[in-house]
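Quick check before the chapter quiz. The format below is the same one you will see on the exam, so make sure you can read both the input and the output lines.
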Amino acid sequence: MEAGVSLGFKSLENEVRVDSLPVEGDVPGWLTGSLIRTGPSKFEVGDQSMNHWFDGLAMLHRFSFNGGGVSYASRFLESNAYRAATAKGEITYAEFATDPCRSLFKRAVSMFQPNLSDNNNVNLVKLGERFVAMTETPLPIEFDPETLESAGVAWDVPGLLTTAHPHLDSHSGGMLNYAVKFGRRNEYRFFSLGPASGDDVNVISSPVTKQPAYMHSFGLTENWIVLAEYPFVVNPLALLFSGRPFIENFKWKPELGTRFTLIDRKTGEETGPFVTDPCFAFHHVNAFESDDGQVVADICTFDDAEVVQSLYLDNLRSGSSIPAPALTRFTITPGAGTVDSERLIEEPLELPRINYGRSNTRPYRFAWGLGTDGTSYFDRIVAADLETRTSKVWKAPGCWPGEPVFASRPGGTDEADGVLLSVVLDTSAETSFLLVLDAKTLEEKARATVPHHIPFGFPRPVRQVARAGSSVAPAGHEAIGLSLLIGVGERAVLSKGRGRIVLDFRKAVIE
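Here is the expected output.
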């Protein structure tokens, strides 16, 4: 890595509000609403330090657009984890790779009375007329968008761990997701949920597994749920007895291969598994069906799970590189029982985005994400044209972009008609700026500079939609994500676990 990129992993302590950021260039007048980014900002508590990039205490960063101007506000998300850390001067809640609960007794108690971290790795979704905050813990919280009062747990998740990347069903307005049920019989419980309040969770299918895999997302086509199990697996008993943080209980077992299972969205019937060479991934990009019945799944893949280790803070701050991801297309032929794979573009790509409302579950042409040459951190924005198998790159000296978020232009008819929004760290100025690019050409439109650095965020989330002049995306348009959330109106409630945080965007404060 170049000197200076470690600034992206340095704690940010200050909370600020700027009514008008200095803007270089022209922000499109049609771009309105807000972009909200939550990510790790505080990595040290007292004399303790978080272990992993994913563990840092979260801060909210809000960019709002109006008539070509951009305002900004930031504030720590005052979760139980943050309050406890501030009050006690120590890390209190277990995170992805940091676990203060070391004794066997405490770990055993936590299995039955889990003290779930609400360190605001946040998802929001508008499901029908309900506004629900979600994350990987099995406690989705419904809230009233007018009064901002919590209405309690929105539904019972049929498992202990759920993905941060549900899909919205454009036909029913409902939601599709899965949860891992640990026990003598470990299961991936895929379930649907209707859009109306009071709708019951319907378990569609429960594929059985001896060793649950770490899976960050799943694919969806018009007819199939696409389950990809990478050989990074866990013995559930290890979660209780090993004494290690959560992710350190998973083991790389390449002899298992990568297993694809197709689940019929209507009947829940399983087809497969279809086994191919071992790989690891966080993010599905998109999936769709071909005219001859093949199922295509595009995934950002790594050779193995070493990328998880590379994202520990000691490694990132010392200048170690991260593995280069490959945009890989897997083509499953159910009749023949085969899986073929090919790399779609030469440029590495991760943290993917598509025009979700238009392209999800369908054949598509464009994807966007971040790239690296494998000798550094993510240092470029990549636009992939999957029809021509070519790519364009935005890159600037000393600049380290965050995940690009696609915002479609009102009335646009082209899949890539819109802009990309990315929070970029400028190590030479030791500040960050919001970058606006033309989504198709990567021509720079504008920069809005923040008066301090913003630590790098991570997108556990899958896809977001920016909609000009809108509040919350309607059914069929995903507006969820752990790292970024677009256009959620004036107010919302963000939560993880049992914590609830009320954000009043009009006052740019957290209540």
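If your answer matched, good. The chain has one domain: 5-510.
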